[in-house]
Model the fold of this input.
Amino acid sequence: MKQDIIAPVAQALIEAPRMLLRPLRRSDAGLIGHYAADRRVAEMTTTLPHPYPPGAAESYVAQVMRPDHPETVWAMDASEMGGAELMGVIGLKALDRGQSEVAYWVAPAMWNTGFASEAVRALVQANPLGNQTIFASVFQDNPGSARVLTNAGFDYLGDAEAFSVARNAKVATWTYLKRLA
Done:
């Protein structure tokens, strides 16, 4: 696995078999806005609103590019392998005591292709934040996302609930964890 440091945010570039996880670029905003505007994508996240407002993608990219942003976000980019330049995003939000929470979404055209599982596995293997434990949660009506986590070696921890902005409701979740140390 290849890891390089990209300036100015000193964020790891992570190579996976069919894609590269790279820092977001301002030019990603158009595709992020296009995919995030899809109700199917928004409703499977806690943070994406639906409808997705104009300018939200540009604002999101600008925020995650800031060095003081609490989440490190990568684009799933398969352009060097002949695929799409942006298939989705994956991020790690640092918690305390060597822990992070991973979150991701993938464009609907890439669902059921294994790209999300590959991205999560590569991120966990690279462990760019030096975590001891990584958590994740998925909505219970999204078993595909649960498979992504179990394919990456995450263990089921329990049930909970989280608020979905797009649904404007609390939604039942499954919580998972992966111990790295």
User: Anything to note?
Assistant: The CA atoms of residues 26 and 61 lie 6 Å apart. Strands lie at 3-6, 11-16, 19-23, 71-77, 88-94, 99-106, 133-139, 155-164, 169-179. The mean pLDDT is 94. The two ends are 19 Å apart (CA to CA).
